[in-house]
Amino acid sequence: MNVLFRYRTVLAAAIACVTLAMPMAGYAQKSEYPMHPVKVVVPFVPGGNADSTARIFAEAYAKHLGQPFVVDNKGGAGGMIGAAQMVRSEADGYTIMIGTTAPIVASWQMAGRSANYSLKDMTPIALLTQVPGVIVVNASSPIKSYQDLVAFAKSRPGRLTFGHPGNGTAGHVNILQMQKAISQQFVVAAYKGAGPAVQELLGGQLDAVATDLPSTLQLIKGWTLLHKSLLFQR
Predict the structure, then answer these.
(1) Which CATH architecture has domain 132-230?
(2) Cα–Cα distance measured from residue 159 to residue 146, given in angstroms and rounded to the nearest whole number
(3) How far is the CA of 192 from the CAs of 73, 185, 226, in angstroms?
(4) Fewer CB within 10 Å: N-end or C-end of the chain?
(5) What is the Cα–Cα distance from 85 to 89, expressed in whole angstroms?
(6) In this predicted model, what pLDDT tens digit does every residue of 23-32 receive, in sequence order?
(7) Which fold has domain 6-131?
(8) What are 162-206's pLDDT values in tens digits?
(9) Cα separation, 231 vs 133, whole angstroms
(10) Cα 112–164–231 angle (5° rounding)?
(11) pTM for the whole thing?
């Protein structure tokens, strides 16, 4: 089960936003777009891959197009709060979203009738990143390998605490798949992004976190976190 899942970060805009897509593709209309600041919605709290990608994107496009691209973090509900804000905005190219698997594909389907948007309400513009998904544990944990993690879970049925960046995220799906694969149930905790989940892990409130590599890379390099596994190749 030592395989790879790649998180996809996608630039999306409100449906029918052709004015945004065309200048981004060829910059042929730089004099027409943008005429004023652009809001870049990140449907997670600061500290995760979508947030860092958005800030790199916003800085680069502000320099190139001559208008501010302002990052607006709207975390919660597996990215649905931020996605709903983007969908409700004017379809004029001035509110865009840096989305991931959760708000674009999974969260609204898991929510069922309570979801207030769907995929048809968004226009994908570009695939920005593909990054590995990881399981991490505190460096002081007795878990030193993926096999240790499985043994730990089986020796404490129903007691392993596992965090993820939000319902519908790839980390959440990976945990569900792991539970099924090893026939165990965990105590699963959803957060508003990778940052809060990792902080809880560092504080000893969680045994493990399933998230994306960029959210944890510096802590792994500094030996604050141990990187246990790459998950679920697709």
Answers:
(1) 3-Layer(aba) Sandwich (3.40)
(2) 17
(3) 10, 22, 22
(4) C
(5) 6
(6) 344 444 445 8
(7) D-Maltodextrin-Binding Protein; domain 2 (3.40.190)
(8) 999 988 888 998 999 999 999 999 999 999 889 999 999 999 999
(9) 6
(10) 100
(11) 0.74
